[in-house]
Amino acid sequence: MSRSLLAIAGILLLLVGRASAQAPSPEAMNAARKLVVTLKIADQYRAQLPQLLLKLRPVVTQERPEIERDYDAMTAPGAEIFPPLFNAMVDQIAAVYAASFTPDELRQIEAFYAQPAGQKFLAQSDALAQASAQIAQDVSQKAGDQLKQRLIEALRQKGHKL
Q1: Do 99 and 139 have their domain in common?
Q2: C-beta separation of 28 from 98 below 8 A
Q3: Secretion signal: which residues (predicted)?
Q4: pLDDT (tens digit, 9 = 90+) per residue, 91-136?
Q5: Based on the structure, what is the number of domains in the chain?
Q6: How far apart are CA 152 and CA 27, in angstroms?
Q7: Residue 160 belongs to domain spanning
Q8: Angle, alpha carbons 121-119-10 (nearest 5°)
Q9: What pTM was estimated for this model as a whole?
């Protein structure tokens, strides 16, 4: 699962937990919306949507040609079905950010991501996360192997047969 989907899922889970919290100020919401747009969160979701629609197509249409034609028209790029979903998602994610940071902090974060270095970081973040996860997995495997060997040797020195 890509980092983007995990991030979106995590944010949606946070929304459930924060539902009872006090609503963020309009200033915080405006700053948070601007940050969410700069982070291109809706664009990431929009890019994954074709895969979702392909998976849903046989289930929804029951592979009947007359339904498939209407399904394809309803899910075509620019179809009316998507904007409300994207807008609601942006608002909900912005609410999570607004509840987590002050308006000034949101503006500072947005300013970083709006700069070339921030945009480069966004573009490279998936690859960096994957490489970092692989390194952590490799190091953990080596550490586990070494620890296992040391423990076996220590237990053998105590007279245990392993």
Answers
A1: no
A2: yes
A3: 1-21
A4: 999 999 999 999 999 999 999 999 999 999 999 999 999 999 999 9
A5: 2
A6: 60
A7: 116-162
A8: 65
A9: 0.65
